[in-house]
Design goal:
This is PAS domain-containing protein. InterPro entries: DUF1457. By secondary structure, the protein is an alpha+beta fold. It has one domain: Beta-Lactamase (2-Layer Sandwich), CATH 3.30.450. Helix content is 21%, strand content 30%. The two termini are 32 Å apart.
Length: 223
């Protein structure tokens, strides 16, 4: 069963819609189809199996991300879409650098699910608009790869954008983060706080906290 980690996309110009922008669907389908074709007898593909020629139509948004700490993924390879968003080479930067700070707590939980459960992460994206910031929407998918015992957990991803980045760097706002476990029998890795969050609904978000045993805190966005 898929789970959704909700947040305050509506409060920042985000969208909770389930359908991806049409321009994004082909790139996402190409990368996911390639990843699925590499699976043999249900096993996850290895990082060494990934050949850029297999996703030639999606290279601008393709990326590899490596888990370096709980909830933290570092970009090892990143397409041109990342350079346009950040205004610099994204390789070596945390994946969270692309996202609005208020969304990073939710993203951290979803990343650990993707890497460790393992699970497929899929989310719709928007960005703040304004002067020099035209409408920008998209979709991101993250597909876990098998560990070879010598490297950190790694995932293959695709960031498909529809619109214009504009004259300055942009930060993305995810809608509901859909997490589909590769094996439905694997245990749920969410913190108890996230289960409370989902029960409360999308008017709540999470943010990091340095106190206590949990690194997540519920925040009522209406207050």
């Amino acid at each position: 069963m898929a789970l959704r980690i909700f947040g305050n996309g509506a409060g920042h110009g985000g969208s909770g819609r389930d359908e991806p922008p049409p321009a994004c669907a082909a790139m996402i389908a190409e990368v996911r189809g390639y990843w699925q074709a590499l699976r043999r007898d249900g096993a996850l593909p290895l990082r060494a199996d990934i050949d850029p020629r297999g996703i030639a139509g999606a290279l601008g948004g393709a990326f590899l991300v490596e888990r370096i700490a709980p909830g933290v993924g570092r970009l090892r390879i990143a397409g041109s879409s990342f350079t346009e968003l950040l205004g610099m080479d994204a390789r070596g930067m945390p994946l969270s650098a692309l996202f609005d700070p208020m969304a990073r707590g939710r993203l951290a939980v979803a990343l650990d699910q993707c890497f460790l459960r393992p699970a497929i992460l899929d989310t719709q994206l928007t960005a703040e608009t304004g002067l020099g910031r035209p409408a920008l929407t998209g979709r991101m998918i993250l597909l876990p790869l098998a560990s070879d015992g010598t490297r950190a957990e790694t995932a293959l991803g695709c960031l498909a954008l529809s619109g214009t980045v504009g004259r300055q760097p942009r930060r993305l706002i995810p809608g509901a983060l859909r997490v589909d476990p590769v094996d439905p029998a694997t245990p749920d890795l969410r913190e108890p706080a996230l289960r409370m969050l989902e029960a409360a609904g999308p008017q709540f978000a999470v943010k990091p906290t340095r106190s206590g045993t949990s690194y997540l805190q519920l925040v009522n966005l209406d207050e």
